[in-house]
Automatic annotation (TrEMBL):
PANTHER family: DNA POLYMERASE III SUBUNIT DELTA, REPLICATION FACTOR C / DNA POLYMERASE III GAMMA-TAU SUBUNIT. It comes from Porphyromonas uenonis 60-3. This is DNA polymerase III, delta' subunit. Pfam families: DNA_pol3_delta2. SUPFAM superfamilies: P-loop containing nucleoside triphosphate hydrolases. The lineage of its organism: Bacteria, Pseudomonadati, Bacteroidota, Bacteroidia, Bacteroidales. GO terms for biological process: DNA-templated DNA replication. InterPro entries: DNA_Rep/Repair_Clamp_Loader, P-loop_NTPase. It comes from the Bacteria.
Amino acid sequence: MQFADIYGYQALKQQFAHLTHSGQMPHAVLLEIQEGYPGLHLAWAWAQYIQCQSPTDEDSCGACASCKKVAAIAHPDVIFVYPVVKAAQDETPTERYFDEWRTFLERSPYITDQDWLEVLEAGNSQPVIYVNEINSLLSRLSVTTTEGGWRTIIIYQPERMNDAAANKLLKSLEEPPAETLFILVSAHSDRLLDTILSRVQRFELPPMTEAEMREALTAMHPELATDALEAMIPLVDGNLSDALRLLDSSASQDKLQELAQQWYDATLRADILRLKLLSEEVDKAGREGAVAFLKLLMQQVGQQWHRALRGEARVGELRVNNKAMGACYRLLEEAMREIRGNVLTKMVLFDTFLRMLLALRN
């Protein structure tokens, strides 16, 4: 995995490359991401850059023996830690799922925590980073690196460490082994212990710019018409993962517009049954389609909100005020957060539609 395999984030890539050669390498960093951002793969690419025998100022060579080992997830000094299920008694729980992990990593840089849950077939079980995993890791860190130089430990979803594991890791962060870099990658860093947060250097991955999104989508989907591309970019808030999933879903731009019109019609008539059916229809488009639909409604509601400030806003024949449109906008924001947090989509949608109807009618 090279930096070049990941679209965008040039400033971060340059910063990681500079740190590697600066003599001021941190011992622990936290990559704070949104779901679908390529933080895990940026960490992997950085680990390869550190191990590379012939790096440039910008990237690993991708051709030396070390690069090939890291790319194959076979380098002994690049260690991945990740949550698993039903393996609390294993000495090294991740070993049971190594083949699944390799396949997961090789799928795409634009993966989500939910994707890993589906790979694990977790069902009602909550994935955990068990204390045995951290004990095994610390045992490996107590011996000299296999190939000399730095060792990199990438911890994915560190917020899923149980208390015993988190406290064990904390001791290593307080007294880090020499030439060892811990990279924590989390979409939920607010769930980490404050004591862990205080011992890491934090990097927040920003949304991709419109120019970066345009470049990436044009390269990955050259068949995509320009007008469809330009219509999609505002719907995904700089999240390339959401854009790619939207393209793979049944939720075309025309379909989203049609669903938005159905929402307006059902809301105008206060047709509760139609709103319920609509929530089920939007749910069929998947999480990304539902988020894009809500984003489209937010754009339209936002336009009406500005008009409401001048007393000109309408939803169909309903004349609505600034307070009503503001309430609707905030309800849509809340719904997007819940759906991205994997709350049941159709339940969130129907509840939001009803609350918006009440706000508009009142």
